[in-house]
Amino acid sequence: MQNALKKYILPTLLLSLLVGAVVFIQSCKKDDDETEIVLKSFGPSPALRGGDIRFIGENLDQVTAIVLADNVEVTSFKSKSATEIVLTVPTETVNGLVRLKTPQGDILTKTPLTISEPIALLSFSPAKARPDSVVTIEGTYLNLIEEVIFPNKKSVLAADFVSRTQTKIEVRVPKEAQTGLLVISNGMTDPILVESATPLEVTLPTGATLAPLPVKAGTELTITGSDLDLTKEIIFPGGARVSSFVSQAADKIVANVPADSKDGELKLVAHSLVETTVPVALEMLLPTVSNLAPNPAKPGGSVVITGQNLDLVTSVGYGGGATGTIQSGGSATSITVSVPPTAKEGTLQLGTAAGKSVTTGNLAMVKPVISSLSPTDIQFTNELTITGTDLDLVANVKFSGGKEAAPTSATATEVKVNVPVGTTDGSITVVSTNGDEVTSSASLHILASTSATITNMPSSGKPGQMISIEGTNLAEVTEVIFPGEVPATMFGIKTDVLIQVVIPATVQTGVGKLKLITVNGETVFSPDINIQGVDPVVDPALVFFDFDALTSWWGDAGAPENDPALTLNGTNYHRVDKDCNGWTGFFWRNGANNFPGAVIGTNVANYVLKFDINVLEPITGGEFAWRLKGSSGDFWYYWKPWAQSGSYETDGWITVTVNLTDFYAGATPLADLSTINEDFGVAFNAGASKVNVCIDNVRFEQK
Fold first, then answer.
1. Nearest-angstrom CA–CA distance, 298 and 432
2. CA distance 693 to 307
3. Together in a domain, 33 and 130
4. Bridge pairing between strands 65-68 and 79-80
5. Side by side, which strands form the sheet with 163-164?
6. What is the largest CA-CA distance in the chain?
């Protein structure tokens, strides 16, 4: 091999240089007739072992010996005269001061003689080696080598050499070494580094076969090949890493397959962190399905799936995009899965942690069955009774004339619903929770109304505002009652087709219905109306954002503000004025900081969340994502004012009320407010819109 000498001083140049060394002459007091021995210079320095070195001075012919470092004494000179001594540098000479022995005493140089080391790396063997095996390096002056550096900067110091002589070093290959050039070093502060001409090839683990294929997640996989005992870890497709093996030998590794392993390339990682790919792709086993029962299944119920390897299933998707929940107690041959209320007829998609899926046969859905309608001759606003089976699935009822209404009650055998104003003669259609529709064979006959009927009224209003109710037979109305059982006391025009009424100041805000009481005691319910206004803060101890003492810790948009033209009561509020696109945090705290959840605890059914808001510009999309996160889950409520009945836009300050039981973590409703000990606050999300709002007095309140 050819040596690559990192630090090299040309000997021919050195021989032409003499050290103008200032020498220290250590001599005894001489007699008057003695001639003084003087050393003026010596060189070259650095010098080559086996090369010549000259000492220049006066009366040097009296020198009896010259001692080089380390205690290498020379008494036989190549030449010696009064002015010059020439000697050949012995091979054992090292760097150090030189001592000339004379009858007048020793002369010690003040500067050291340095030796130019002609270190050479001529060869190494074998050319390919396993980690922890011995590599033999041959060359010259290898006795001066203090370090062998393997690729990947893994060094072996002289203390750990197997052996070292002037011409040979035996050293073990570190397990972290990679394929590449070897470097030897004399270990000095400014070292001589000599590099090999060819690389050392370090053996890597090599895989050849995988068994079984396909393999089931969580079971054992056997990898055969060569040098597999050099494997530090296995990287499975999908990124899972396994470093603890069932067994490991040079020709075989047995390892457990991670639950989330996927199809694809398997990689073996050596201790050097070099990866090799097994040439056979890993294939994950899929579950198989033999039966679904019951079929049809009832939305909101459950279905039992039987087959093989069903313990691999991590998700179940239904027709219509609904997702089921795998119930506990399943096995490899049978799992029970909830049927979401919105699930539609179709195949199921069984997903696995490996990212694979299996499609089952068709699963039909139970539909409501209508047996009878009573009465079939009916007036507007009167109650219709629908009998049949599986009617607890009914979420809505459609009437002829384009009208529809939600049931006032629903059981498996009976649905009650009020006939909307404007319904015409014809059949009715019940709409299931999953959107399936069933039309009755019987028809309704709508009787002429002899009582008050509302045909038109505002969808929103504010306390103190006069609204107009239009209809027929309104002269029969003797009383108008607003949400919260608050009777109206102030009226404007009142005729057979029009009632003007002022919304009472004490009305219950939010979405509700008016009750019109007729002279003969009948009750007529209005369409929904959104009463907008600000509710007083009942319990200041349940306020957790007021932007005065109880402000936010962080947020992406907005800040406390106190504009006299906008403030609700002269105090601070949080103002956002931003074009939002996707997640935009408004205000947040965490760690249960001043959060009054412990006061309410599990009594969430009797409490609501309230906040005061002033929407200054129309909001066209997205949602306000209210979050209550803690040890029992991450609970969300998504408020979309622009999608609700009535307008929340540019109507001044209003109070919005949200049932705490409407906060969900997935399919789980909030049950214990004392567990909320992490993030709480609100952000814009799931859309894009200009948001220009003021928010104040975020609080809980007992119903």
1. 11
2. 55
3. no
4. unpaired
5. 120-125, 134-140, 168-172, 163-164
6. 158
Q: Which residues contact 610 (CB under 8 A, 6 or more apart)?
A: 535, 655, 656, 657, 658, 697, 698, 699, 700, 701
How confident is the prediction for the chain on average, in pLDDT?
89
Distances (CA, A) of 78 to 38, 51, 68, 85, 87: 20, 11, 15, 8, 5
Q: How confident is the model at residue 49 (pLDDT cuts 50, 70, 90)?
A: confident
419/442 Cα distance (integer angstroms)? 15
Q: Please say whether the beta carbons of 53 and 114 come within 8 A.
A: no
Same domain, 546 and 681: yes
d(CA 338, CA 317): 11
Name which of 15-19, 213-217, 369-373, 437-441 the model is least confident about: 15-19
pLDDT band at 34 (very low <50, low <70, confident <90, very high): low
pLDDT (tens digit per residue) in 372-428: 999 999 988 789 999 999 999 999 999 999 999 999 999 999 999 999 877 899 999
Is residue 89 within 8 Å of residue 51, measured between CB atoms?
A: yes
State which amino acid sits at residue 485: E
pLDDT digits (tens, 9 = 90+) for 325-351: 998 778 999 999 999 999 999 999 999
Q: For residues 386 and 432, state if they share a domain.
A: yes
Task: Specify the long-range contacts of residues 494-500, CB closer than 8 Å, at least 24 apart.
Answer: 496/472, 497/470, 497/471, 497/472, 498/468, 498/469, 498/470, 498/474, 499/468, 499/469, 499/474, 500/466, 500/467, 500/468, 500/469
The predicted pLDDT at position 701 comes to 95
Contact 213, 220 (CB under 8 A): no
Kindly give, in sequence order, each residue whose CB lies less than 8 Å from that of residue 123, ignoring residues fewer than 6 positions away: 1, 137, 138, 139
Let me know if residue 610 belongs to a domain: yes
Rounded to whole angstroms, what are the CA distances from 107 to 41, 210, 214, 329, 410?
12, 77, 85, 96, 118
Q: How many domains would you assign to the chain? A: 7
Regarding whether 133 and 97 lie in a shared domain, the answer is: no
Q: Does pTM surpass 0.70?
A: no
Contact present, 223 and 210 (Cβ < 8 Å): yes
pLDDT at position 47 is: 84
Statement to judge: residues 305 and 181 lie in one domain: no
Residue 670, in any domain of the structure = yes
DSSP 597: H
Asked if 405 and 399 touch (Cβ cutoff 8 Å), the reply is: yes
Q: Mean pLDDT over residues 683-697, rounded?
A: 93
pLDDT exceeds 60 at position 551: yes
Instruction: Tell me: do 675 and 568 sit in the same domain.
Output: yes
Q: Taking 70 as the threshold, does the pLDDT of residue 22 lie above it?
A: no
Residue 480 has pLDDT above 70, yes or no: yes
Domain assignment of residue 282, yes or no: no
Residue 210 and residue 310 in one domain: no
Contact 637, 665 (CB under 8 A): no
Q: Are residues 39 and 67 in the same domain?
A: yes
In the block, residue with structure tokens 């010098």: 47
SS3 135: strand
pLDDT at 386: 97
Domain that holds residue 22: 4-116
Q: In the listed set 531, 562, 594, which residue is the last one of a domain according to the structure?
A: 531
Q: What is the three-class DSSP state of 701?
A: strand
Other CB atoms within 10 A of residue 498 CB: 15
Is 231's pLDDT higher than 60? yes
